[in-house]
Amino acid sequence: MQMLIRGWMMYELTSSPLMVAMVTAAMMMPMLFLSLVGGALADRFDRKKITMVSDIVMLGSFAVLFGVSAAGIMAPWHILTVSVVNGIAFSMSVSSRQSMISGLVHREQMRTAVGLSATTYNSAQIIGPAIGGAMLPLFGATWALGVSTIVVIPAILLYMTLKPVHHSSVNDAKGSIVENVKAGLAYSFHNSTLRFLMLGAMVMILTVGPFQSLMPVFAEDVLGVGVGGLGVLMLAAGFGALAGSISVVAIGESVAHQKLELVFGLLAAASLTAFALSPFFALSILLVMITAFATTGFMVVNMTVVQIMTPEYMRGRVVSVRFLVIGLMPFGALSMGGAAESLGAQIAVAIIAGVGAVGFALVQIASRIFSPADSQ
Length: 376
Prior knowledge:
Elements: H1 2-14, H2 17-28, H3 30-42, H4 47-70, H5 76-99, H6 110-139, H7 141-150, H8 152-160, H9 177-190, H10 192-206, H11 215-222, H12 226-251, H13 257-277, H14 281-308, H15 312-326, H16 329-343, H17 345-370
């Protein structure tokens, strides 16, 4: 919710697609430097406490931004600063948040639990902006920020109630934080399945994944539907994301994860290309829904297999490598924003989505050549 609202406010302040993309970049950039440290901490300390401290920090930063907006003194640097603070807090806790699952369910429930957790996480990345987009025309940007701040409070209260079914084998990581980080990187690289999962996620994050960052530009300049149309587009994306998540959980293990990733990846790239070139609002609504459906489905499958393939003692660190890949999104968002500045949003997004389609195919071909056993 916050990211979409901030993007809209930044566009109103600057009228620059690149500055809109900078909002996403400021949030995601800390993951490049801190997610691996957060993964090491997740395998050494209480994951629940790390998660709660992070949420409290984010609550405080949200409240500050709301106060700045309510005072009428909002400037681009306020938005970027709060986004960086959020990125730091998120990076330090995201591995703990995801890795807590193993202590909350019995072993035979792990696959379903990880799938549902990945579903909620990836759906929220699109459903949240959808809600934010719906609130903007109803309440205005300032009060939309206020509502999204209040939403954090019940999340913190819910985390307080968590009681593990059994205790995870955290605190098993030996040596220094640097040694722990190296061990996580080495494990992720030497396991062929994990290696290709990371590469597939990298293609998604650098090409199709950042499509939300330019939604304010498409709503305002391409389709001419303003903030109300932005809300409709983001709601459509939210419905698509939820449908994509549910479909993955419903499919379960009946289809090999590599086949699912390829289908979702190519569908996401094709639908985003069509969306970029669409001059019709109604058609754009349908296409953004399909893009969100496929993007979320891809990411849910990817995260589920990453967690299932990783032993408990290493899970925090391997998950952190996965989120290090997600931390590359600023480069995808900035490339979209920069290309949109020079080529126009439609051509830029269409070209980048086409590159994504080629990337998905190449990763799947390589995985079948170098890890044939895993492709069955």
